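Quick one - first record:
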Amino acid sequence: MRKSGIVIALVAFLTLALASAALADPVMDRIMKKGELVVGTSADYPPFNFKAADGTIMGLDIDLAKILAKAIKVKLKIEVIPFPKLLDALNSGKVDLAIAGMTMSPVRNAKVFFAGPYFITGQGALMKGEMMQKIRDLTDFNKPEYTVAVSKGTTGEITSKQLLPKAKVVAYKDMDAALKAVLDGKAQVMVADFPYCVLASFRYKADNLAALQKPFTFEPLGVAVPANAPLLQNLVDNYLGTLEGGGGMIELKKRWFKQSGWIKKLPR
């Protein structure tokens, strides 16, 4: 073989080697060898993810995980992790995916890959009915005498600090704790994703809770995937695209946003 032939062969070999290396996916290998997909979620954000009264973890996010695990013929394990710690758990290998109604923000996207979006939402506001009579929009809470309840590490916290710099923004450990602050009168308003606010106003109508009628931000929700998992990234992206195109996503949204039977399973 001539020298030029050796060079061509070597280049071809290196090209194939680099292509194989690019496709190497330790996370996908781990999933298939264990026969188990581990998904992290916060279980405090109905209807996307929540713990039912009997302890079962449910929601649209959980259904997404179940369908994906079944499609690749592995078992599903759900790990409940506080929302602010989900991406650390993902990057450390404690979970394979994080599906938790998570906004695909630039800051988060700098740490992990996002597949999706699978849902478009925005921030909403929740308050007592008498407070709703006093305000026109969220910026009316931008005063020192108002306390704003948010869930720690969420875009609700970030948005509140940006839009309401004069108010007292208190970050609680989770959504339920922030909601309780409003119910107990410790905060005048809660800022959270719009679907959560609407659901809470319905669940706690007897407590005179009300939500603003529309979201005031644009937020795409995605599935967080480790940065070193190209095959898994491609798999989840294609899975969400197929689910959307085949009508499966419409059925899931109908179940969790149009039907109300599951609400009875929520703990009071």
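second record:
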Amino acid sequence: MVTFYIVRHGQTLLNQLDRAQGWADAPLTASGEQAAKELGKSLSSVVFQAAYTSDTYRAFHTARLMLEEHGHPDIPIHQDARLREWCLGVMEAEQNTIFIKRVSEWLGGVSFSEMNKRLPEVATAIKQNDTTGMAETFEQISKRLKELLISVGSAYPDGSNILVVTHAFLIKTILYLFHYAGIGSTSQIRNTDSFRLFYDNQTFKTE
């Protein structure tokens, strides 16, 4: 069985400013860097075979800081666009309160927790109201995500531990796909939150 340690990146400037952040990228704050280091130290007993991140600087920087504090800065970090956050289209860098309000309105006034249970509809609403042409469907997002996890999970022997640093909506997608029963109680994925995802060469499961 291969174990993925799924981590959300550290706090960024846009996070600090409470702005929506999808394909838009921003540097880590000092607080974000410190939290990444602390998480790396807390995982010092785990032997990682490799690390994978999205192609954003904030994810790569988080992984680099974690591995340096972990004591293994030589572990290779593979950047892959399939781990990229959802594109938020015209909502990129919008105030989070406005972003959530708009999506709620598009779905008929649902609550934030209800949005988590209806991620495919959230993705559809974002795409339908996007004028940039960049937003993806939930099927497209799920496809790239599962392709990455299966290809990486199949490339390493049983007992391997893989660090994955990605983003809040993509982590919610993982939970929706592989642990839907727990998605309703997940109010928010905070910076440097983490959990384990297990792959036995056939199926995925979470703790």
